[in-house]
């Protein structure tokens, strides 16, 4: 055990999870690679939990941060803030929400907290619909709506949460149905649920469930839900903390796979937009955003140095068509991993979109999760010079693969080869 690990265990909580039997200290990065304190180089296929979205040490972002820090780092939302206004204008434009207003936070958790405050205030209801297997953050209210027992340490909550079917396509009571029948059954479940409760404030849903193992419903499910929600005046909150900014390749936002009945009422974002800086936020129609009747500020949300990073990062993302790169390179990577999975009886499914890929592991010949093997694959991949993540919900275990969106074809092949070796060595 390293000296730093010893110190970590003394002063930080026991529940603060660390990857690997011998935890890793990452000291620096460049492009799609990082280095540890011992000088080992790794291809990064997890990006600090989908947060380093474009590249490590991206010159355009580091330059913008350095120049802004040389002027002023912070002043709070009590003063006019040009970088915050400029980034809000750009996000409002790309959000797809009409008459959009933007509020900045420091994290996805805080963004979802804000969205819940807005929805419950606007609707005058503390009942919230959420998806089974979901994850929305670690605050008190976000934990209260998280449908994943492994990430929900308490059942206490300021909200009444009702869970809906549909976030997981390949498991559960509707798994054997075809896509159209699956959507029909989930909509029927939603309608039945609404017949047993007071009208909820909102449905909050990740278009692709992140912590839950990169699971998703068939395209159009949330559009079908929207017809039911609209009939009851219920808002739709799309949690785009992991799916936003082009990561799925096919769309800029994950909700666009369910866009038949229009955009969400509220979108939350974080992670990738700051490329490692603490940026989160909420986009909502003005009537929803402006519904609060008490003062509110954000001390650190929208601070100048993080807004400068977000502006530079979003510009780079759009100018270099990283969404298109995620679609092209991610498509190749998924097909490569599916070829590997076809030879491995312990891989139940390779799923995902763009550069958001899940590899679900089960014990061969069964449908039972294999978390021990998932941990072993992480270790073997690290030994081979590759960093990946893991996740899963009820009785599932999955490897999570989410490299920076600038990943090259050669790096995708290199990472796939390491992961193939790691899977073979753990069979």
Key attributes of the depicted protein:
427 residues, alpha/beta, seven-stranded mixed beta sheet, 16% strand
- Report the average pLDDT across residues: 96
Give the terminus-to-terminus CA distance.
Answer: 27 Å
Strand tally? 15
Strand content: 15-25%
Main pleated-sheet profile = 7 strands, mixed
Radius of gyration from the CA trace? Answer: 21 Å
- The strand order across the widest sheet is 4-10-9-8-7-5-6
What is the overall silhouette? globular
pLDDT < 50 runs, ≥5 residues:
none
* Helical percentage: 25-40%
Please report the number of helical segments.
13
Q: H/E series, N to C?
A: HEEEHHHEHEHEHEHEEEHHHEEHEEEH
Supply the helix-strand structural class: alpha/beta
Explain the overall architecture:
Strand 1 (about 25-30) and strand 2 form a beta hairpin. The chain has 13 helices and 15 strands. The longest helix has 20 residues, at about 320-340. The strands form 3 sheets. The protein has a 7-stranded mixed β-sheet, with helices on both faces. A 4-stranded mixed β-sheet has the order 1-2-3-13. It has about 425 residues and is an alpha/beta fold. It is globular and about 55 Å long. The chain has helices at about 5-10, 45-50, 60-70, 80-95, 110-125, 140-145, 180-195, 220-230, 285-290, 305-320, 320-340, 370-385, 410-425; strands spanning about 25-30, 35, 40-45, 100-105, 125-130, 160-165, 200-205, 235-240, 265-270, 280-285, 345-355, 355-360, 385, 390, 400.
